[in-house]
Hints:
Elements: H1 2-22, E1 70-73, E2 94-97, E3 100-103, H2 104-116, E4 120-122, H3 133-145, E5 164-170, H4 178-186, E6 193-200, H5 208-215, E7 220-228, H6 236-245
Parallel strand pairs: 1-4, 1-5, 5-6, 6-7
Antiparallel strand pairs: 2-3
Amino acid sequence: xxTKTILILCLLCALLLTxxxxxxxxxxxxxxPAKTSEPAKASEPVTAPVAPEPEIHxxxxxxxxxxxxxxxxxxxxxxxxxxxxxxxxxxxxxxVSGGTLMGNxxxxxxxxxxxxxxxxxxxxxxxxxxxxxxxxxDQAKQEQKDKARPAITxxxxxxxxxETVYLVFPNWxxxxxxxxxxxxxxxxxxxxxxxxxITHGGSGFSKTLDSIRLLEPECEVIEGLSVSANKVPDxxxxxxxxxxxx
Length: 246
């Protein structure tokens, strides 16, 4: 009995071993191919933005392209041999300013030039006028009668390129001093703007502006100030305001 039981157990063990061996082995896990990276694109060259050229501003009035105003004056000062001890107060055409003897037109022009930041320039003649005021008036009257053209000896710097000119002069016998006829005939003011201020003994502008317009028909002639000779010393603010408003 024991022998049969042992045999049966042996047979059962053999059957169990055979069944286990016959079971299918699990298939190896599928290996997915590794993803291949796309070839890197060649990087495009990077161009840095170009900064605009800086704008350069210059305050130098002499820089090319800049138009610098010119201030001119015709006066007995510079055209007259005055005695060293001359009494400026007694003259109708001169004044003492800051301890310096100056012509009326010269003083007005100096204030205009200072307001503009330039130097006033004198129109000088070859004839020398008398130191005595009345004798100068007589000579001026004779020049007008003769239609004289007194020679100009001075050269005005920057006049050819100037677009704006300020001119100060005395009214002589209701018109321009004859030296200014010479000056306008020798210089071309076409396309310029001319601001005119005069000194006078009571006759104002008279025909001075009309004479300039006839001599310079292509120039814009603008009436400036008409200053009485005895009011010249007190006219500084009036002159500066005129220049600022022109």
